[in-house]
């Protein structure tokens, strides 16, 4: 089950579960579309994998399988 993390790891922008602007890699690192397509150039800075649009979990399924509330931020160099 995907965690559906609530924020971009770079800019901390809110990414609700129904956001079409969320991008993620196969390890569920999560970024907003602006960071993913801009500075990150479509590649995860953590693992090097490609960033794809995160699927949207239907609202009815969120009741039983809620999105994560844990915010993750990438450490700045």
UniProtKB/TrEMBL annotation:
Origin: domain of life: Bacteria
Entries under Pfam families matching the protein: DUF1272 (PF06906)
InterPro entries: DUF1272
Official protein name in the record: DUF1272 domain-containing protein
Protein source organism: Candidatus Viadribacter manganicus
